[in-house]
Amino acid sequence: MRPYTVDVRSDTVTQPTSDMRQAMAEAEVGDDVFGEDPTIKELQDRSARLFDKEAALFVPSGTMANLIAIMVHCHHRGAEAIVGDLSHTFLYEQGGAAQIGGVQLATIKNEVDGTFSLSELRNKIRYDDCHEPITCLVSVENTHNMCGGKVLPLEWLNELVKVVKDPAATHSPIALHMDGARIFNAAAALKIPVARITRDFDSVCYCLSKGLSAPVGSVLMGSKAFITQAHRLRKALGGGMRQAGILAAAGLVGLETVVPRLSGDHQRTKRVAEAVHNLKSPNFTVDLPNVQTNILLIDILNSKLSSNEFCSRLKEIKPEELEQGVTSDEAGKVGIVVQMSSRNWKYARAVFYHQNTDKDIDMLIKKLTYVIKEFDSSLTA
Q: Which residue among 111, 191, 210, 258 is the one 20 to 30 A from 248 at the CA level?
């Protein structure tokens, strides 16, 4: 019998819903490179309205969306963009800004809440020395993935805008971009429209293929002039697609049917966090008060244990756990496999999404509880 598997490695493992599959099958399409795909146009128009931006562009991935934004805003080679040191753009987009765009990324240390020091930002802005690159862009991530799905505080965003858009500044205008891959999670947590969060940003992108359950794509938004340039760069980067309305149709369903359910993902995340917290383990902990959205970091406190070891054990099924009832069925025959993310981190990461059922959460907690207690026993023996 197959084990009962709960996959919380990422919300990218979501599957298209039945409504999405039907919409994709029935989508009205055309050649989008010629600007003739009506479903692409509908997705772009709806996205622009949602974010109160002038225009939008459908692209294959969030990585491409961020790269295009950097290249449009940093319109000459040798320019500089400032990002957080734990940002996805800096860590996990293969240095595309430099590799492809000729743009240098300067970093500021991210705080645990996903923000960074605005006084340090002021000192990092460069504009009038011929020895230095010119700062053209500041980019932030919301929610912040590697900080555990943190929502950037509106107060901090307001202060960031004042620093970057200071009318008294003597330097050239600096653009603001938001990597909003999970921006709808931020809006759900704050209970405000996404347009309020991104109100003062020159560009923003969001991902359709994470918690929104669509199979492919992100949407990039900004002014008409910005999107005109973004459209040119999308083509140069190989992102020009033909009958892409098949993909956009799934995105439209995600906006209609999945976005309203994101708060449920947050509740399930909190439930797992509370279960770990209540174990009072000396080796594992969670920052329970600051679990805000659908990402949970389980911190590993013991230097003798790595996150890779922990996550590997969660995927194992040992005979003794079946004997002790760590199963998904009353007969005690079907063991539980939990898949979480780990690299060289001191934590394991779980990301929840709307296709995680209540039973999934029950099984995950059962397995987590057993494995954490097992490690607690072995590490203190």
A: 191
| HSE toward the beta carbon, residue 190, CA cutoff 13 A | 22
CA 66/CA 46 separation, integer angstroms: 20
Contact residues for 42 (Cβ-Cβ < 8 A; gap 6+): 248, 252
Enter the pTM of the model.
0.95
Region at 205 (left for phi over 0; alpha for psi -120 to 50; beta for the rest): beta
- What tens digit of pLDDT does each residue of 281-329 get? 999 999 999 999 999 999 999 999 999 999 999 999 999 999 898 998 8
Cα 268 from Cα 363, distance rounded (Å): 12
Rounded CA-CA distance 295/348 in Å is 11
Helices (H), 59-210: 62-73, 88-92, 96-99, 118-124, 154-164, 183-190, 194-197
Beta bridge partners of 176: 138
**164-200 pLDDT tens trace:** 988 776 577 899 999 999 999 999 999 999 999 999 9
Instruction: Determine the Cα–Cα distance for residues 148 and 183; give it in Å rounded to an integer.
Output: 14
Distance CA 181, CA 28 (A): 26
For residues 362 and 315, is the Cβ–Cβ distance under 8 A? Answer: no
Q: How is residue 73 written in tokens?
A: 């805003």
Per residue in 232-251, pLDDT (tens digit) is 999 999 999 999 999 999 99
